[in-house]
Amino acid sequence: MTCCGVDMAMAQPLIQRLCIIGVGLIGGSLARALREAGEVGEVVGCGRGEDNLQAAVRLGVVDRYETNPACAVVGADVVVVAVPLGAIGPVLRTLVPHLSPTTVITDVGSAKGSVVADVERIYGMVPPNFVPGHPIAGTEQSGVEASFATLFRGRRVILTPLAETSATAHELIQRMWGLTGAEVIDMGVCHHDAVLAATSHLPHMLAYTLVDTLARLDDRAEIFRYAAGGFRDFTRIASSDPQMWHDICVANREQLLKMIALFSTDLERLAGAIRSENHAEILAIFQRAKRARDNLYLE
Ligand code: NAP
Fold first, then answer.
1. Which whole number is the average pLDDT over 157-161?
2. Alpha helix positions (H), 152-252
C-alpha cells in the first residue's frame, strides 16, 4: 500500500517494540544505533538500578523502563538480554511465563556455551525464537552513560544459531545487527568459545594479572610512575568491569584454561631461553610474533 508516494510497508520500523534488559554499554549502544537508523518504534529498558534507567530515559536511549523483566517484555517483538553472563540464566527464568510465542529473544553474552546451557536448563530445549549472539565490540567502560551509537560500526557480531533456531528469528536478529553497521557472521557455539578464549578472554587475563602483579610490588608507585605508552596500551583492558570478567571466566572455563596452559608453556619457554642465554630462541620468538602482529590487520 502506498500513501503520498511512500510505501507504507517500508515505513514500518524493523522492530516495533524493543526490550533491552541490561541498559549498559552494549544494550544502550544497540538501542542508540537502532534509533539512529530509525528502525525501532518504542524502546523499553529494564535493569535493577533506577539511577541507570533514569539516565537511559534522560539520554534518549530508552522511552521508558521497568525494573521487573516480566513487565518489561510485554508486547515486545524483540528482547535483547544484555546483562552480565552470570545474570542471563536468572533473568531468562523470570521471563519464561511472560513471553509471547512470537517474541524473538537474543543475548549479547561474551561466551555462548554457557548461555545455551542456561536456556536448555530453563526451557527444557532451545526455543526456535532464541538466537544467541555476541557483538565483538566494547570498551573498558560500563553503564548507559558509556554507550554510543557507533560502537558496532565496522565491527563483527557473531550469531551462534542452533539447528532448532527458526530461520525467521535468525534473519530478524541478523538484520537488527546489520543496521548498527556491523558485519554479522554465524559460527558454531563451541568454535565461538574457543576463538574468543584465545582472542579476548586470555588477553584480559594477562592484563589483569600483569597489573595485579605489579600493583603488589613494594615499589609499585615508582613502577607506575614510569609506566610508558606500551604499558598503558597493554593494560587498558584491566580497567574493565571485574564482575563481568569474573562471569566470563566462569562461563568459558574449559576453553580459557586450555589457552592459559598453552600460554604458560610458551612463557616458560621464553623464560628458559632467557635463562640459558639462548639468543637465537629469543630472537626467533620475537621475530615470529612481530611478523604475525604486523600481518594481523592485512587480511
Ligand atoms: P554493563 O555496561 O555493566 O551493562 C550491564 C547492564 O546489566 C547494567 O545496566 C546493569 O544494570 C544490568 N544488570 C546487571 N545485572 C542485572 C540483572 N541481574 N538483572 C537485570 N539487569 C542487570 O555491561 P556491558 O559491558 O554492557 O555487558 C553486558 C553483556 O555484554 C555481558 O554479558 C558481556 O559479556 C557482554 N559483552 C560485553 C562487551 C564489552 O566489551 N563490555 C562486549 C561484548 C559483549 P543494573 O546494575 O542497574 O541492573
1. 98
2. 167-178, 189-196, 202-215, 220-225, 229-235, 242-251
> What is the rounded distance in angstroms from the CA atom of residue 92 to the CA atom of residue 81?
8
pLDDT digits (tens, 9 = 90+) for 165-194: 999 999 999 999 999 999 999 999 999 999
Domains plus CATH for the chain?
A: 8-187 (3.40.50.720), 192-294 (1.10.3660.10)
| Cα separation, 69 vs 154, whole angstroms | 31
Residues with CB under 6 A from ligand 1: 21-27, 47-49, 52, 82-85, 87, 91, 108-110, 134-135, 138, 142-143, 241, 244, 248
Cell 530515559 belongs to 57
* pTM score of the predicted model: 0.93
Neighbours of 6 (CB within 10 A): 10
Question: With contact defined as beta carbons under 8 Å apart, do 80 and 32 qualify?
Answer: no
Q: How far is it, in rounded angstroms, from Cα 46 to Cα 61?
A: 12
